[in-house]
Amino acid sequence: MYNYLDFEKPVADLEGKIIELKKLAENGEAVDVGDEISRLEKRVRDALRDTYKALTPWQKVQVARHPDRPHCVDYIKGLFNDFTPLAGDRNFGEDQAIVGGFARFRGEPVAIIGQEKGSDTASRLRHNFGSVRPEGYRKAVRLMELADRFNIPLLTLVDTAGAYPGVNAEERGQAEAIARSTSACLRLKVPSISVVIGEGGSGGAIAIATANRVYMLEHAIYSVISPEGAASILWRDTTRSKDAATNMKITAQDLLELKIIDAIVPEPLGGAHRGPDTVIAATGDLIAKTMKEFSGANTDFREQRREKYLAMGRNL
After folding, report:
1. Angle, helices 276-295/72-79, rounded to nearest 10 degrees
2. At residue 38, what are phi and psi to the nearest 5 degrees?
3. 120 plus 258 within the same structural domain
4. How far apart are CA 194 and CA 64, in angstroms?
5. Structural domain count, the chain
6. Do residue 23 and residue 118 come from a single domain?
């Protein structure tokens, strides 16, 4: 059974009926239910198609936050070989909200930095729900500098509601750590690719996402603040989060139109959580295509990146 979102109730009801029929058949209490199950499965596909082609921005927020979406570690396991993790910032400690290291992608060496939310209670606590502390961003800077030193392309996987806002994090220089990480991204001489796989929240996301190419999954979101945060600031009313989501232009489709991102990775019908292997493979294919373009290009990647982000301010 899936974790159903509020707007997926028609799908949940239909899939519930399918499960009941299969149990009856297994227990010998029903015969010849195959046709009915096939009919219901078609209705499920139709319901998912109708629902997901008309998602509102707020519904996309819910899909982007779905607990069963594939996370950073799933992409690492599905796309890379010989992953060797790097730990610690050589200053304070280890932050497991950032998972990073070196690996091989289809035979080529790459550096990987990703934000990991966790998939169950224990792992969510261990990874701090993907909210990165200063030591996590400093670890990311270590990886970027190593990638530059050894001329290895950088890939980042973005999935965070935002940087950790706790008092201890602020005391350890959270704002400075985010700024240095963003600066390190922009200074890289090697090519960089960033993929927003779920939530891209605020400076916590931008700190590892200022890449030469930025991609988003079809139902991912990317914004300077959460809809709830925007609603509380603009209207002093978090119940207006839906209005905020609509006006903030946070969806992949909006951001592609605004030329903030470069391409969208399609998700399986019903979202990435219904076909994790499919979306991971599609993401890998786009990364491979981009790396092939980069390898054959005589490009100053630092200058290209600089122009990419300066143009966003010029062409408003």
Report:
1. 70
2. -60, -40
3. yes
4. 17
5. 2
6. no
Rounded-to-integer distance, Cα 279 and Cα 267, Å: 6
pLDDT of 68-84, one tens digit each? 999 999 999 999 999 99
Q: How far apart are CA 288 and CA 285, in angstroms?
A: 5
Tell whether pTM > 0.90: yes
Q: Which DSSP symbol is given to 240?
A: G
Asked, for residue 6, whether it belongs to a domain, the answer is no
- Looking at the structure, do residues 19 and 74 belong to the same domain, yes or no? no
Q: How many helices (H) and strands (E) does the chain have?
A: 14, 8
180-183-188-192 Cα dihedral, nearest 10 degrees: 100
Q: In 3D, which of 64, 56, 60 has the Cα closest to residue 273? A: 64
- Structure token digits, residue 206: 């931008």
List, as one string, the DSSP characters of 290-313: HHHHHHT----HHHHHHHHHHHHH
Q: Which positions ≥6 away from 276 have C-beta within 8 Å?
A: 69, 70, 74, 78
Q: Which helix (H) or strand (E) holds 256?
A: helix 252-257
CB 84 within 8 A of CB 101: yes
Q: Report how far residue 211's alpha carbon sits from residue 313's, in angstroms, rounded to the nearest whole number.
A: 16
Residues 202 and 275 both lie in one domain: yes
* 114 bridge partner residues: 99, 157
Q: Give the tens place of pLDDT for each residue, 247-300.
A: 999 999 999 999 999 999 999 999 999 999 999 999 999 999 999 999 877 889
Find the domain containing 49 and state its range.
14-54
CB 220 within 8 A of CB 264: no
19 lies in the same domain as 80: no
Q: 128 with 46, same domain?
A: no
